[in-house]
Amino acid sequence: xxxxxxxxxxxxxxxxxxxxxxxxxxxxxxxxxxxxxxxxxxxxxxxxxxxxxxxxxxxxxxxxxxxxxxxxxxxxxxxxxxxxxxxxxxxxxxxxxxxxxxxxxxxxxxxxxxxxxxxxxxxxxxxxxxxxxxxxxxxxxxxxxxxxxxxxxxxxxxxxxxxxxx
Length: 166
Known about the structure:
By secondary structure, the chain is α+β, with helices and mostly antiparallel strands. It has helices at about 35-45, 50-60, 115-125, 140-150; strands at about 5-10, 10-15, 20, 25, 70-75, 75-85, 95-105, 135. Helix 1 packs across helix 2.
């Protein structure tokens, strides 16, 4: 059950009395994976992925640790964001940044945690000389589309295609 967000003296207070200023962004570590899986379960319910644990382990092991981030509040992980850099992507002649996975504890959604994670990842990409960042979302995921718009994302010229193999 999530607690209400209050504003006291102009300072936004999140669940547990945490303020937005108390949110710390850091690189994801192996010990954060179980909490990321809990967050995904809280968001997705019965539709949750069975591959998140393996995916996060692979991203952390791959070496792009600074593109795998968590947001911590009061010593507890309340969100995560996994980015990636691809040297070759759809015929591009430059490295492209990607946002692969994002998850924010439902009690902390809509209060700047995801934006803080996204902005931290953009700063990291900039240090790597990345000039284009992409992601994909399901066409009917209005909440995710709105989130990415807060980070400055716009509709791209790509159309996602897929084929189901039986």
